[in-house]
From TrEMBL:
Listed GO MF terms: transmembrane transporter activity
Keyword Transmembrane: yes
Annotated localization: Cell inner membrane
Task of the protein: Part of the tripartite ATP-independent periplasmic (TRAP) transport system.
Family: Belongs to the TRAP transporter large permease family.
Subunit structure: The complex comprises the extracytoplasmic solute receptor protein and the two transmembrane proteins.
Protein name: TRAP transporter large permease protein
UniProt domain TRAP C4-dicarboxylate transport system permease DctM subunit: residue ranges: 15-426
Membrane topology: Multi-pass membrane protein
Species of the source: Thalassospira profundimaris
A Pfam family this chain is assigned to: DctM
Amino acid sequence: MDPLLLAAIVGIATTVVLFSGIPVGIGLLLVSVGFIIIFDGTGSLPLLPEILFGKLESFEVLAIPMFILMGAVVASSRAGGDLYSVLDRWLTRVPGGLVISNLGACAIFSALSGSSPATCAAIGKMGIPAMRERGFPDTVAAGSIAAGGTLGILIPPSVTMIVYGISTETSIGRLFLAGLLPGLLVTALFMTWSLYSTWRQGNAQAALGVVKYSWKEKFEILPRVLPFLVIIGAVLFALYGGVATPSETAGVGALFCLITAMIIYKMWKPGQLWHVMRDTTKESVMILLIIGAAGLFSYMLSSLFITQSIAQWISALEVNRWVLMGFINLFLLISGFFLPPVAVILMSAPILLPVIINAGFDPYWFAVILTINMEIGLITPPVGLNLYVINGIAPDIRLQTILKGAMPYVLCMVVAIIILCFFPQIATWLPETVIGGR
């Protein structure tokens, strides 16, 4: 059978299985094993466990549950609320200070947790009622938190970036550095739109801030937040400075976050620790199963010569490389509408990486572009996980209102992609400066 025709059949079968509602990891396993048996026979079955678990043998994989544990500790404590309160008290007299506080809290909490839904839940519980109370429209209140939560997969340390690094065998430290400035760029675009939206609706009172805090109130909460900021600063310093590997820094960071939360928030009860470990285990197993299944899926595509044929076909297209990148962005955007970021990266990155390198694009710059596309998928239907998290926090805000408020932030991310296309140095300068040439 022609490999490209076979690729279409595999694509249709995969789409049908994943749309059936079956877990992504299980779905990829079923598709992979099914096509291997059909075309290679049962003789290949003894190899499958070795391929599946071989994908999980990398020491770098250990960073994933460790960073998830780090995020679970922060999400299970009152750190999110305290972080929000600190920014609110210090920025209350800044024009639009409250919305800046929410987006800033989302950015920092995202860096601590690496989880978009956790960020939405932690900051949204405090930020949405506060913004509505001070007169911000529901679209700004809900949309800004939904969009701010997406920063968790771009601003380092990012679990998504770790998955990309594992699947493409690229440097995780360099990926983290590549995502830092674009993450700040997206945050700045979010803040700019939020301030403009507030000003446009004539909400001067909300834009100027109406609550005053004393210096005592501003300083009394800092001791509860600063330790977590110091931990993430130390983790990034150890990682970028070459002091330790991503897995080592993740383990140490998780341990210190756990100890800090136990001391500051008195998380001594077995039930509280069980809650943290349960959430960590569930999310880690889900991601690791997808990684192993995606490894098997990649083996199936390669053994049937599908990966090589697709890469050759794309490379043979006589189109401008930016036209090619436009089609790739469209593919990633549509994929992100229906599948979680980890699944899209694991299935598409190994196929697309040779293509984008042959076209002259930087693989670390592409990782940032891919991640921003995945961010868009988190706040767009039909999946749009962050939209449903916000709806769960504020059920009286209709889903359509949340979506309406999130759409301008989607455009902000599209603008960020365009800016990065014109100025790729935003993603490549920091890794080249700190780590040097590849």
